[in-house]
Design brief:
By secondary structure, the protein is α+β, with helices and mostly antiparallel strands. Helix 1 runs antiparallel to helix 2. The longest helix is centred in the middle third of the chain and has 15 residues. The N and C termini lie far apart (58 Å).
Length: 165
């Protein structure tokens, strides 16, 4: 399949020149088109947002996935390193038991090879204290054969601790 993209560029200063550019790119046809890692990630967030953790686990998480969420475990019950679907499912149980989200919004997804970086924001109420936390986060997913084999979260854990205590 060939796609041609045409563009015109006017250079400055006035009286400059006009350049016509034509870019042609060859795309190899796939016999078995696979979902991109960004699309798999997007579907995972959609499942989380509608509370469908079984679908998220089934469709996104590899059996041997390592899931890393920062923070002191004595203050943030969902913090730690979780290995395998059972431990990762427990992470989601801890999140659900401790936080009530009014916003959880992935804002940007960047894919490079087998890695997807997601930047987003959240607003949640800590169930234990009633305090609200607003935070920005970055999630880094590493994929193999369409499934996440590693997840690492970067977030302001001090804001989470303040809401939980």
């Amino acid at each position: 399949m060939t796609t041609a993209i045409g563009a015109r560029m006017l250079c400055w200063p006035p009286g400059g020149y006009l350049i016509d550019i034509k870019v042609t790119h060859q795309f190899a046809a796939r016999k078995n088109p696979m979902t991109s890692n960004v699309e798999a990630t997007r579907k995972g967030y959609e499942a989380f947002q509608r509370g469908d953790i079984p679908a998220l686990m089934r469709d996104l998480i590899d059996d041997d996935c390592t899931w890393i969420t920062p923070g002191p475990q004595d203050k943030l019950p969902w913090a730690g390193t979780f290995r395998g679907k059972q431990q990762i499912a427990n992470f989601f149980v801890q999140v659900g038991e401790n936080l009530e989200f009014s916003e959880f919004a992935p804002r940007e997804m960047i894919e490079q090879g087998d890695t997807v970086v997601v930047l987003g924001t959240l607003t949640a109420r800590a169930k234990k204290t009633g305090k609200t936390v607003k935070n920005e986060w970055a999630h880094v997913f590493k994929y193999r054969e369409g499934k996440a084999v590693r997840f690492q979260e970067y977030i302001d854990t001090a804001a989470d601790v303040a809401a939980m205590t």
